[in-house]
Design a protein that fits this description.
Length: 902
């Protein structure tokens, strides 16, 4: 029976775990048959509403517990510096708090009170600096959006809704309880701000609405200095049926009014500017609506530097306009000329490098990314890139953020969002490198910390995780790996200096406070504020000295250092038949056996300690393989095993396709020219997925060295066995990763078959889908001029897919300064190899696949067996010489998968 046949009965039986603590045979038998214990998952504190007080060096936030009550906390980014500022005096319900407005040194908050209303509080991030400013009665609630802190006035201006009087009231506060007073009461002249409060040259401006008589509306522009005596109507306009939101451009307010004619589709929209007095108030532009419902008028404004932007949708077309508040400075930036009229501008505008970027629909390409210049003709608006073309569809760009000379956004719509970046050109608009093919997102807006962008994305088959994009380069990395699948929600996160705070649930602590410095290693649980609603406690530390070694032909022995405070240990197991999870009871447990395994069965395990307060972080994965033969038995060329170094080393591969869940055995394709290396295929013999090499390094460090390079992202295990001593090493590749590995302490002076917290390896950061050009900047295939050429195998060139594609490589050895061109070793129509230093020593494998039936693209894969610097060039000779360059920096051993190469 082959190894695949041995896996099938294993899939039908349960995994038994035996903990050797001197228990009775009956107790051991009971444990062998016991199913995995239920997961211990506390409720968590659900942190939210983060406000960074960077001048104070702290971030304040709310946390709610099992009782459903929320408290105010602060953190300086350390566990010791995280503490409760305020226990809500009336037992605030979860989500009952609201941040009114915040500066870098103080935050103003609304908290529910015991009388059924809400009060205004302020905090500077300290207990003594957290005080109540108001003492409102019942049925009094914050006015929401109309809140502003005016540095010139030194006051907070805000509104409240008083249900007893049935109207809005205007208030101001100087930051003390005595200085928090009502400015204007609800009445015939004042019904509350229509939109918001705006800082206007040392005063606060807002718009109001009233009637001179029934059916005679009035539009009022108010200004206030934060006192009752300094609050008054500055301008009244008696011709407005509808008013647009007010904005401030420089030291002048701008707003819009609409006057309706006999029918709803007949109205005039006027744009106004005002310095806060009748003498400085005038109309600077007018529009006549044409066939649209005037109740959609008038427009709102987006202030961008010294101009205001608005859409002319109210006038029957939909163009992007800009104004400086004067008639001569008001002009359209686009000329889509849509007929019939429909919306064209779909996003806020972002400025980058003197150009304006926005999502728009010109009636031809769908909703795509556009750009325009303020100083260009109307026809100067240009489509940046059409990311959804067959035949007319929309990529729906949203969330535009500019950092330096790169624009970041998401496109693909709600169901298939993908992170993109652009330098403002079609060729420079690409998916962000590092983001995997099986990932989706961002699902929520980016959260910016410095020049890094954090967002939540979906990892297929695994759930929602946290990602970061480096704003300087666009490289995107996965920061969390929470299993079992638990939600990550950075959409409610916030900044703590150079770090990012966010709530996450790791299935151990509940939804708790996490922190990230933008690296995988620096993304961690910051503090467990609550355990199932109880007083915060301490989970045990992570187990150390974790080992895995074969204990026979049907078992694996796990070992670890017992952890103080642990009550149980959770074990996660990954095998080709699928993942398994179980629990080991016993505070003093230090080792266990995985039994009922098949001969030659690879197993990857990690462990964590748990108690009533939660669980530790997971240990590193460790791997080993059960014995499959007696020592001294020769390596057999049976199609499943690769025999290298004159048959001394047997290489076997087991894999599991994370997409279908199907397991399999790697089939061998030994090299005809060398016994140092060989390849494996998984799905079809002409499609190489893996190359493995064994080198004799015993004269250097008394060890044999193992290298492998991948051309696949499926989950797999490589078992390297010394058939003389039966010592073995097992290497594990997690699903979704395309990365090679170099182990210069593989076999030799090591305990047979053991691994301690993973082997001593050189593994670089996983690299996934995306093309990397010079200096790590993404590039697209660029067409070269000239006729199509024929591919000639000249010793330096691989000709692939019927000679359509030509592959060459240039290398530079950072260890000795040597450089050269790779020597090509043709293998199959899809695959070939390159050697650098020795014709018997393969360093690089390249594969080209036809992915047209899947995504309309040609796919390029390569796997490395060397960490020297090299540049692989792949050219499409049938498409005008289109070419992609893939640059491997020195020290990197990862392979690469580009599923959008050509």
């Amino acid at each position: 029976m082959d190894r695949l046949g041995l896996l099938r009965p294993l899939a039908a039986c349960a995994l038994a775990l035996v903990v050797l603590l001197g228990w009775s045979p009956a107790a051991r038998a009971e444990l062998e048959t016991r199913a995995a214990a239920p997961a211990f998952i506390p409720t968590g504190s659900d942190p939210q509403s983060f406000v960074d007080l960077h001048e104070r060096g702290v971030t304040v936030f709310w946390a709610s517990f099992k009782s459903g009550k929320a408290d105010l906390w602060s953190t300086d980014g350390t566990a010791a510096g995280t503490g409760r500022l305020l226990a809500c005096p009336s037992g605030c319900p979860s989500f009952g708090s609201e941040v009114a407005v915040a500066t870098g040194s103080v935050a103003h908050l609304w908290l529910p009170n015991s009388r059924g209303g809400a009060d205004l509080w302020r905090t500077d991030g300290t207990g003594g600096g957290t005080v109540r400013l108001s003492n409102f009665g019942p049925d009094t609630f914050p006015g929401g959006k109309p809140t502003i802190w005016s540095p010139a006035l030194g006051r907070l201006v805000f509104t409240i809704h008083n249900l007893r009087t049935g109207g809005s009231e205007l208030w101001a506060s100087d930051g003390t309880a005595a200085g928090t007073r009502r400015i204007v009461a609800a009445g015939p002249k004042f019904s509350g701000p229509l939109d918001g409060l705006h800082d206007l040259g040392g005063r606060v401006a807002f718009s109001g609405s009233r009637e001179a008589a029934p059916g005679q509306p009035l539009f009022d522009l108010w200004t206030t200095d934060g006192t009752a005596g300094g609050t008054a109507i500055a301008v009244t306009i008696a011709t407005a049926d509808y008013r647009g939101p007010t904005a401030v451009l420089g030291e002048r307010a701008i707003f819009a009014t609409a006057e309706v004619g006999p029918v709803w589709s007949d109205c005039r929209v006027d744009l106004w500017t005002s310095g806060g007095s009748p003498a400085t108030t005038e109309v600077f532009a007018s529009f006549r609506a044409a066939g649209v419902d005037c109740r959609d008028a008038p427009p709102s404004f987006q202030i961008l530097g010294d101009v205001a932007l608005f859409s002319s949708r109210f006038s029957g077309d939909d163009e992007l306009w800009a104004t400086d508040g004067t008639a001569g400075g008001t002009r359209p930036l686009t000329d889509f000329d849509l007929r019939p009229a429909r919306p064209a501008i779909y996003s806020a505008v972002t400025e980058m490098g003197g150009e304006l970027y926005f999502a728009a629909d010109d009636g031809i390409h769908g909703i795509e990314l556009w750009k325009a210049r303020l100083d260009a003709p109307i026809s100067g608006a240009a489509l940046v890139a059409d990311l959804c073309t067959p035949p007319v569809c929309s990529s729906l760009p949203t969330g535009l953020v500019a950092i330096g000379d790169l624009l970041y956004f998401q496109a693909g719509g709600f169901y298939t969002p993908q992170p993109w970046m652009s330098d403002g050109t079609d060729a420079g608009t690409v998916r962000r490198p590092g983001f995997c093919d099986d990932c989706l997102g961002p699902f929520l807006p980016h959260q910016r910390v410095g020049d890094d962008l954090y967002f939540v994305g979906g990892v297929r088959y695994e759930g929602a995780e946290l990602f970061v994009t480096r704003g300087a380069t666009g490289y995107t990395e996965l920061l969390t790996d929470l299993q079992p699948v638990q939600p990550v929600d950075p959409g409610t996160g916030g900044s703590r200096g150079t770090h990012f705070l966010f709530p996450a649930d790791d299935a151990t602590h509940g939804r708790e406070l996490w922190i990230s410095d933008g690296t995988r290693a620096g993304t961690r649980l910051l503090v467990d504020l609550a355990t199932d609603g109880a007083t915060p406690g301490a989970p045990p530390p992570t187990p150390t000295h974790v080992t895995s070694s074969p204990a026979g032909m049907d078992s694996i022995r796990l070992g670890w250092q017992p952890v103080s405070g642990a009550k149980r240990y959770r074990v996660q197991v990954r095998q080709p038949i699928g993942p398994i999870e179980t629990t080991v009871e016993g505070a003093g447990a230090s080792y266990a056996h995985l039994t009922n395994l098949s001969p030659g069965s690879p197993t990857t395990v990690r462990i964590r300690a748990e108690n009533d307060f939660g669980g530790s972080a997971w240990s590193r994965w460790v791997s080993s393989t059960t014995l499959s033969a007696e020592p001294g038995e020769p390596c057999l060329l049976d199609g499943d095993s690769l025999c290298l170094r004159n048959g001394r080393f047997r290489i076997e591969v087991d894999w599991r396709d994370q997409r279908s869940g199907a397991p399999g055995i790697g089939r061998t394709l030994p090299s005809a020219s060398t016994d140092r290396s060989g390849t494996f295929w998984f799905f079809r013999p002409d499609n190489v997925e893996l190359i493995v090499k064994v080198l004799d390094g015993t004269s250097v460090n008394a060890h044999w060295w193992t290298f492998y390079g991948a051309l696949t992202d499926v989950e797999y295990w490589i078992t390297v066995t010394d058939v003389v001593s039966q010592a073995s090493r097992t290497y594990y590749n997690p699903p979704g990763q395309v990365c090679g590995l170099g182990d210069t302490a593989s076999l030799g002076a090591v305990t047979a078959g053991s691994s301690v917290d993973g082997p001593t390896v050189s593994r670089s950061r996983p690299r996934e889908v995306g093309v990397l050009g010079p200096l790590g900047r993404p590039v697209r295939a660029a067409d070269a001029s000239g006729p199509s050429q024929a591919c000639l195998e000249d010793g330096k060139t691989l000709c692939l897919l019927g000679g359509r594609f030509r592959a060459r490589v240039e290398w530079s050895d950072q260890h000795n300064g040597g450089a050269g061109s790779g020597d090509a070793v043709p293998f199959a129509d899809r695959t070939g190899f390159f050697t650098f230093f020795n014709p018997h020593n393969v360093e690089l494998v390249v594969k080209v696949l036809d992915g047209m039936p899947v995504n309309g693209k040609i796919w390029v894969f390569y796997g490395a067996l060397s960490d020297v610097e090299y540049t692989l060039t792949v050219e499409d000779l049938f498409d005008g010489g289109a070419a992609n360059e893939y640059h491997n920096p020195p020290g990197n051993l990862c392979g690469y998968a580009d599923t959008s190469a050509f």
